[in-house]
Amino acid sequence: MSKVSVTYLKRTEDEIERLKGWEYKGQDSADLLPEPVRKHLILCGYEGKKLPVSGRVIWKESSIRFGPDKPWTRLATQQFNSALSPFRAAFMKTRMFGVLPFEGLDLCIGGTGSMLGKLAGIVNVLDEKGMEMDTSGIVTLLAEATMIPGMLLMPYISWGSVQGNVVNASMTLKGITVTGRFIFGDDGLFRSFESDDRYYANPKGGNELRPWKVECERYDETDGIRFQSVVTASWQLPEGHYEYWRGTIERVDSGPDGVIFS
Length: 262
Fold this sequence. Notes:
Layout (H helix, E strand, L loop, with lengths): L2 H18 L14 H9 L6 E3 L1 E11 L8 E10 L4 E10 L3 E10 L2 E8 L3 E6 L2 H13 L13 E7 L2 E8 L2 E9 L5 E6 L3 E3 L5 E3 L2 E11 L2 E13 L2 E15 L3 E3 L2
Antiparallel strand pairs: 1-17, 2-3, 2-16, 3-4, 4-5, 5-6, 6-7, 8-9, 9-10, 10-11, 11-14, 12-13, 14-15, 15-16
């Protein structure tokens, strides 16, 4: 087993152990959520049920582009998110140029972000840490909060103004505050998240703040609960739109704990 996969499993197992002793300290009432968020949760089937606070995101398929002019590369992706730390770990495997095995690990734990990538399990091609990775990781946690909806009630998320079907929100961890916009469709379901606080790694060097967007193109349903199934992520660059991630979620295996939504 590679060092990258071992790190993914260890960090995930550590978070699951922490969850076993966790006492919920979020909002006492889902009534404090903005109305578009409440409506979305009701439409997803959560009324009177637990809002999960952790879950494994089971990706049926996923693909990435390593640059605006690069082809799509298929990935095998594993992911676990939790509202406790909060925590996000995404482990990705592929073959570069169709030959060299590549493994990547995108982590954000309690606001500390990192990205590790290895070729053939040996050569580091990515080893990113620091404030910019922390900030970007927190933005991603906020964007995926509707995927693990118990996170929406956590004290590190603050809700701002509501303008029609757009709800402004922020997340604060480690003294870093990021902002974003949850956008809901005419059907009331969450459709996209936008933020100007995420860093884009310019292939020419350096990291730059660029508009970033996650879109949900389709919902599926399991056991009476709707979940995001087709998801994309993209940047808006000076030279145009750059969609770099596309994936299909088969299901989300939620942990046993949750917060009753009523």
